[in-house]
Amino acid sequence: MIVEQKLREELYQTNQKLYVAMRAFQMAAEESRSLVFTYDLKRQTIFVDEQTARTFGVAEVQPDVPYGMVGRGIVSEDTVDEYIRIHEEILNGGLQAEGIVKLITVDGTLSVQKLKFEMIMDAEGKPSGTAVGIYRDITGQYQDEKELRRYQRLDYVIQAMKNDYLGIFELDLVKERYCVLHCGREHSFPLPMEGDYKELVDKVAEKLIAPEFLELSRQFTSLDRMRGCLPRKNGLNWNI
């Protein structure tokens, strides 16, 4: 009886120390905009804190990961394959796995996260069946790099074409509206800086396209053609 009570006390103290250590680690992670959680591979279940559970609308003990998370719409469509790959890599015996995914919060906010798993080894140096997962929010860095690449491409196009173009514009294929990013050579009619794409195409065709090429021009600039040529991004939006 005394031995059993002593074991219980030791187990309680061990659990308390583990909790304090994990909480300290979590607090440090929060300061670096990271989320630390554990992943039970056998049960395919993750254990997250209360705040994270509320943010993404999941349970603190969330089963059926990764597939259930995809089904709940938490993972952005364009990174579903990468999200599943990272999890399957650790599920299939990998000691580490990482990649970049996009997650959607309850309020619809899209965040870019670097996800990394590392297997916890037992006292004998063998995989314990539990991995530590870390999400690091890199949304700001990702957006800055994306914007830099965008303007680098824009500058390349401008330099390559010199002044032999009316303008370079960004097109929202959902709203069917455009926004001029850079004006090209002078022309005989004003080019609105933003507006309805179809109206722009009709105006350019009326002023610049010879009658025998009108049909070809309409086919080339049609929204359906562009939607068919460009890769799908995050379900709906494209930029060109």
In short, what is this structure?
The chain is an alpha+beta fold and 240 residues long.
Write a structural description.
With 240 residues, this protein is an alpha+beta fold. It has two domains: 106 residues, PAS domain (Beta-Lactamase), CATH 3.30.450; 85 residues, no CATH class. The protein contains eight helices and nine strands. A six-stranded antiparallel β-sheet has the order 3-2-1-6-5-4. The protein has a three-stranded antiparallel β-sheet with strand order 7-8-9. β5 and β6 form a beta hairpin. The longest helix has 30 residues. The C terminus is likely disordered. This is PAS domain S-box-containing protein. It comes from Enterocloster alcoholdehydrogenati.
CATH topology type of the largest domain: Beta-Lactamase
> Mean pLDDT score, rounded?
78
CATH class wording of the largest domain: Alpha Beta
Using DSSP, what is the number of strands? 9
Low-confidence stretches: 232-240
Structural class: alpha+beta
Strand content: 25-35%
Oligomer: single chain
Supply the CATH architecture of the largest domain.
2-Layer Sandwich
| Helix and strand element order | HEEHEHHEEEHEEEHHH
Approximate helicity band:
40-55%
When the domains are counted, the total is 2
**Measured on Cα atoms, how large is the radius of gyration?**
26 Å
Profile the largest sheet.
6 strands, antiparallel
What distance lies between the first and last C-alpha atoms, to the nearest angstrom?
74 Å
Within CATH, the superfamily of the largest domain carries the name PAS domain
Secondary structure tally, helices: 8
Strand line-up in the sheet with most strands: 3-2-1-6-5-4
Basic shape: elongated
